[in-house]
Amino acid sequence: MKRTMLFLSSIRSYRRTNQYSSLNRRIPAYFMGFITKGRGRLIINDTIYSIEALQFFILTPGMTVSFLSESEEVDYYLLLLDVVTVNKQQQWQLSAQADLPPLLLQYGISLHKEKNIIEQLERLHRAALERIHDADDLFIQAMFQQVYGTLVQELSIVEHTQSSDESLQESIQYIHAHIQQKINLQTLSSIAKLTPTSYSRKFKQIIGETPLEYVNRIRMDEAKKRLTGGRANVKEIAAKVGFNNEFYFSKVFKETVGIAPALYIKRHQLSIATVACNSYSDSLRSLDVEPVVSVNCFRYPGMNEQEHQRNLAIHFHTLALKKPHLIIIDRYHLDMYDRLKHIAPTICLDYDLDWKVTYRKLAEILGRENKAEHVINQLEASVHQSRRKIRSTLGDGSLSLIRITPDAIRIVGSPEHPLNDLLFTELDVSAGSMTPAITSKIELSPDQLSSFSMQSDFLFIQNRFFGANGADIMTRVHSSPFWMQHEAVRHNRIRFIPNWYAMSWTPLGRQQIIETLSGIEGCQS
Asked: Do 278 and 446 meet the contact criterion of CB atoms below 8 Å apart?
């Protein structure tokens, strides 16, 4: 049995301009390279490979390599690797010579999950630059293994596709070559020499989506590129991506992307209004976009009908006055969609437990994708820098969170929420103990708290009160056995916090939470 392990020695980022070339370099060690922008020719031991953005390459000791750029600018990462191969007969022994898996020795392979790879490389590069202590190396190696794992998974899919059914690959090439034309399942299955049913099943199994979903995605991706490129004509672009009907194209584009093509063309200049419980306004500001108006029309518990209707009238009047190009709403305002769309085109962002999915969707709508990735990378660097300080401050202290509303006490089980993910996974804070254990959101009255045990060194409480019931429920909580017996109460380790549950959905909010935790007083055992 033989196994090869890869470790990261260093990572560097390069940008080459003016038709860069590098000739006849002899490679002294193992390198892994990723092209992120541009294209060129890679010449390895007199064999020429065309290589372009979103492709990777491996260089091994003894190779003679030349690179000739074919674009004005080339961006790439170069990773210096330590490669170790071990053999096992009766026990594991280090081999005298490293032996790379053949899977890695492929060139000109495009990566389908390019956003994942590029995001991981950016995080890895940043972490390597910020490395201070030897202990940071463990974290950096773990990040590299994530990159390597994603790469191997991508290459395995390509190899499986090529080896198991080359005709399926031919059908995919046909899709890309005939994107302007009508493409039907019968034609694709005939190319693959399969029945339509078998072809659809195999396609979904290998590619991860149905043939129709794949065709539409490729068409929409191509449409987005063309709509971004200068003098865009929706009717012409519709025809170039296989739609005879401009209006049907607009309908499909809006369903896929979220906004109509006419808005997508000028997405960098759109004036935006948000109508949401979620802090979309903070997300916009982190993308350097200031909303023209941000309102919350949700009727919270404890808010009477008269007050709610008065707020609605004020908010809708403000929206009408501001005349935004686009209104962005969350799922809590879907019942107002028809009314809002008479003011401006309205889009509801899909709910996803991963806050980054929603954030990236928002960035795509506004043409701020690069800015979003930069913000996410900065936040992850902040998490990495703050984790050790927070753990040092808290010691072995644990933390519990509750949310008090006029009607109930809410506890969100782990993971179930971006706030829990930030605190107990990313920042590695110890969670308090709960009996019985919960894995989802529960709501209790103050009287029911006596049947629920939650012990922790710190208790963080977010309260949201409307009307007279707020003071009453807090009084009942204070008089409950839960409160009087809680360790954090006895040791005065209670913190009243703003709405961290909402803040945890945005980069700015998550950063504020990190800063608050970094500044709390320590827990002495």
From this structure: no
Position 471 scores a pLDDT of: 67
Spatial separation of the C-alpha atoms in residues 266 and 188, rounded to whole Å: 36
SS3 category, 326: strand
Closest to 192 measured CA to CA, from 216, 214, 164: 164
Q: Which residues of 305-319 are buried (b: 16+ CB within 10 A; e: fewer)?
A: eeeeeebeeebbeeb
What are the tens digits of pLDDT across the range 364-396? 899 888 888 889 888 888 888 888 888 778 877
CATH of 267-367, one of 3.30.70.420, 1.10.275.10, 3.40.50.1980, 3.40.50.1110: 3.40.50.1980
Q: Does domain 2-162 have CATH number 3.40.50.300?
A: no
Where on the phi/psi map is residue 327: left (φ > 0), alpha (ψ -120 to 50), or beta?
beta
* Assigned CATH for 165-258: 1.10.10.60
Strand runs labelled E in 412-478: 430-431, 433-435, 442-444, 453-455, 458-463
CA separation, residue 317 to residues 47, 276, 311, 322 (Å): 68, 16, 10, 9
Token match 């584009």: residue?
A: 253
Q: What is the CB neighbour count within 10 angstroms for residue 176?
A: 10
Query: Among 73, 75, 93, which residue's Cα sits nearest to residue 85?
Result: 93
What is the residue extent of each domain of the chain? 2-162, 165-258, 267-367, 372-518
**439 backbone dihedrals φ, ψ, rounded to 5°:** -120, 0
User: pTM for the complete prediction?
Assistant: 0.66
CA 116 from chain centre, in angstroms, equals: 8
Report the CATH fold assignment for 372-518: Rossmann fold (3.40.50)
| Tens-digit pLDDT profile for residues 425-480 | 888 888 888 766 666 677 787 777 767 777 888 889 887 655 555 667 778 888 88
Examine domains 267-367 and 372-518 and report if their fold is the same. yes
- In the structure encoding, which two tokens stand for residue 349, read together? 């962002």
